[in-house]
Structure formats: C-alpha cells, structure tokens
From TrEMBL:
<dbReference type="InterPro" id="IPR050638">
    <property type="entry name" value="AA-Vitamin_Transporters"/>
</dbReference>
<feature type="transmembrane region" description="Helical">
    <location>
        <begin position="283"/>
        <end position="302"/>
    </location>
</feature>
<feature type="transmembrane region" description="Helical">
    <location>
        <begin position="196"/>
        <end position="214"/>
    </location>
</feature>
<feature type="domain" description="EamA">
    <location>
        <begin position="166"/>
        <end position="302"/>
    </location>
</feature>
<keyword id="KW-0472">Membrane</keyword>
<protein>
    <submittedName>
        <fullName>DMT family transporter</fullName>
    </submittedName>
</protein>
<comment type="similarity">
    <text>Belongs to the EamA transporter family.</text>
</comment>
<feature type="transmembrane region" description="Helical">
    <location>
        <begin position="47"/>
        <end position="69"/>
    </location>
</feature>
<feature type="transmembrane region" description="Helical">
    <location>
        <begin position="260"/>
        <end position="277"/>
    </location>
</feature>
<feature type="transmembrane region" description="Helical">
    <location>
        <begin position="139"/>
        <end position="160"/>
    </location>
</feature>
<feature type="transmembrane region" description="Helical">
    <location>
        <begin position="110"/>
        <end position="132"/>
    </location>
</feature>
<dbReference type="Pfam" id="PF00892">
    <property type="entry name" value="EamA"/>
</dbReference>
<feature type="domain" description="EamA">
    <location>
        <begin position="30"/>
        <end position="154"/>
    </location>
</feature>
<feature type="transmembrane region" description="Helical">
    <location>
        <begin position="21"/>
        <end position="41"/>
    </location>
</feature>
<dbReference type="InterPro" id="IPR000620">
    <property type="entry name" value="EamA_dom"/>
</dbReference>
<keyword id="KW-0812">Transmembrane</keyword>
<feature type="transmembrane region" description="Helical">
    <location>
        <begin position="226"/>
        <end position="248"/>
    </location>
</feature>
Amino acid sequence: MNQHTPLTAHPQATRAWRQAIPLPLLEAALILTWSSGFVGARFSIDYAPALLVVFWRCVVVTLILLPFVAKSLRQTSLPVLLKNAGIGLLAMAGYLAGVIQGIALGVPAGLAALFADLLPMGMALLAALVLGQRLAWQVWAGLVIGLVGVVVVTHGALAWGNAPLWAYGLPLLGMLSLAVATLWQKQLSAEESLGLLPNLWLQCFVSSIAFAIVEGTQGSLAPIPSTGFALSVLWTVGLSTVGGYGLYWICLRRATATRVASVLYLSPPVTMVWAWAMFDEPLSWQMVCGMLVSGVGIWLVVRAEARQNPS
C-alpha cells in the first residue's frame, strides 16, 4: 500500500485533470510566474530587506498549506521527509539565497540574473558529468543558442559592480543548487516522491528556517507594517512560490529536466516585459531579437528530446 495519503478523494481524477492540460500551456504559465519572482524582488527592495521578504513568503505559504497537507505528512516516513526536505533546501533556500544575497552584496542584478539563467547549461553538465547521461548534439546546440539569446536580451543590463570578488560566485552557487535539486528530484522513486502540495509545503518550511537563521543574524524578523511590504509578500507568495515553484515541479513530472530548464531561457525577456508594465522600463528590439534566438534554442531542445523519447 502506498504510504502517502492523497490530498483529494479522487487522486486519479486530479492526475487526469493535470495531464489533460497541454504541456506547452503549463510551460507558458511557468515562464510567466517564474519571471514574476525577479519583479517581486525588484519591487520589494524599496520596502524591506530582500531576505526578510523571502522569509515571510515562506512562512505565509507554510501556514496556508498546512491544513491541506498535515494528514499526508503525518503518514509519510521520516527518511522520505528528510530526502524531500534536502531537495527543498537546495531548490528554494539555496537558489534564492545565492541570487538575492549576491545582489545585496553589490553584484549587479543583471549579472546575477544571467548567472541564474545558466541553469539549463549547469543542469546538462551535471547530468552528463555526474549521472553519465548522454544528450544529443542537437540538445547541446539548442542550449547554447538559448543562452546566446539570453545574453542578447540582458546585454544592456550587464555591468561589473563593486561587490567583493567572492560574492560573484553566490548567484552561480544558487543556480547550481537548483540544478542539483532538480536532478535529485528526478531520481526519486514514486514511493519517495511527495504530492505537489506536501512537497511545496516542506520546501517552504525548511527554507523558512534557513532564512530565519541567515536574516536573524542581521536584524529583526518582524514584519514591516507597511502596504508595500504586505504587497511584496503576497506577490511572491501567490505568483513566485505557489505559481512559479508549483508549476516548475508539475512540468518536471511531465517532461525531462533539460526541457523544463531550457524553457526558463524565456524568463529574462518576460521579466523585462513585467518591468515595462510595472516600472515603465524601456523595451527594445534587442530584447525581441534575443527572445527569438532563445525560442529557436528551446525549439531545438524540445524537438531533439521528442525524437529521443517518443511518446
């Protein structure tokens, strides 16, 4: 008997409903919500320390989801919980702390975002070197072309800041942390994998502890009584965490890690559209061209993997 109790009375119907949604539609929603995280970080820095917002983002998600996942978590063995907690620490605390703390120490946001956008290449290299997976040359070509598109999009925002030299490694370590978590998640057996909501709850729970330790050494963890702070937390709770991370794990169950990561090559131009709509930042033909180049790279990856893994 499976050790996990489903969250609904009809788990087969829930899975069938998710499977009925076309994967490209889920990936489009993933790009939209994932890119909202960078916009949320940009919005929140005017009202509170970035890690304080991330801490409360995790706390709020933990409190909201607890009634829906408590029964399932109680019936899950400790080893399974510990494995998924480790994945959560790497995927959320490691990734967000690396990128956000790098920016806080003076790494320019554009450069930090570019390091984060190396996720598809980092994941492919780890899969090849550590797991011994062999990717078709078309997949490698698509990843490189997609990265070129990202560089074209972000070129105008790239600059070398005044941060300590070691701080530039933090966004890179954050990217590698998410890459390791993603590959680890894909290696879990069905018995070791939690449902979507218990998985998301556990990630936010362990990450809130990690952020409390980091931010607590620098100042108070008390929420700031302002509308801007509240909106920052709500934005990142709904769009970036439940939407972004939730859709990331859903897509990862439907497709390969390489495909899901490569789709995120489109997050930089979408982020800039967010910034144009919310902060009146300018758009340019360079961004459009970069988006098209990344689109070609993603198409190569998707087509190559479809040939390797015909459904």
